[in-house]
Write a structure and sequence with these properties.
Elements: E1 7-12, E2 21-26, E3 29-35, E4 44-47, E5 59-62, H1 63-78
Length: 80
């Protein structure tokens, strides 16, 4: 498997959330969850990190900001 086939989006329910979450998985490992608890124009991304370096730190940020950062990173790499 390579490319997009490695990624999967799974909709999940969590009792403390009003809406479903979208979990992004890479090779069957949860990478992040996207929620819309603050509205569809303010979705958040929560990184799922099991690395001891983070010591249970919650990493959460706005979805749109993350998407823009990914686009900027791609553009920067394509310019090199």
């Amino acid at each position: 498997m390579s490319g997009k086939e490695n990624f999967e989006v799974v909709l999940r329910d969590r009792h403390e959330c009003e809406y479903l979450l979208a979990q992004v998985r890479y090779q069957n490992i949860g990478v992040c969850e996207i929620n819309r608890e603050k509205g569809t124009d303010q979705m958040e991304v929560e990184m799922l990190c099991n690395d001891p370096l983070y010591n249970g730190l919650e990493i959460r940020f706005p979805f749109d900001d993350f998407l823009e950062a990914l686009k900027a990173a791609k553009a920067a790499l394509m310019d090199r």
